[in-house]
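batch_manifest entry 22 of 60
target: Tetratricopeptide repeat protein
source organism: Salana multivorans
requested by: lab member K.T.
priority: normal
notes from requester: please return tokens only, no post-processing; we will run our own comparison against the previous entry in this batch. if the run fails, retry once and flag.
--- input ---
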Amino acid sequence: MSDDPGSAEDRATTEGGGPAGAQAVDRTRRTRSMLSAVAVLAVLLLYVLLVGQRAVALIGSGSAVGVAIGIAILAVPVLTLWFLGREVTQARAVDRLTDLLAREGGLDVDDLPRSPAGRIDRSVAADRFDAARARVEAEPGDWRGWYRLGWAYEAAGDRSRARESLRHAVRLERGARR
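--- output ---
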């Protein structure tokens, strides 16, 4: 909780956590997450720039070994930028789906019980997972079901399947818009 007694986070918890309070807390968390991502991105881009400069210097050295090492080293920042672009694009697409569901009133409330350290109770997450999987099996072409399944996988701790389910949800929603 914030040290500021008038913060949105405090009002949401002390005033019963109504819809307006929950939205304020969500915006606060979203802003913090975005700022954290931007900070990590800035450090990563600094790293890419420094490695890229070293690679270009080695390529410019003129020696066969220097050029070969420089080209090999240059592959690291290029691949890093490609992966980074892919992940940022995916995150923005999932964020757009979240906003769509919120506007439709279909966004699930994250009320899973957590440990004092913030870890989700896996047994409760497993129950939600079964419901999400059943929905996808019943309606495999519905992006909303895949979206919920992705977050159910995330809550259950299976991040690779979570990411794939969310990617599938994005593809289905894009296809539905066309």
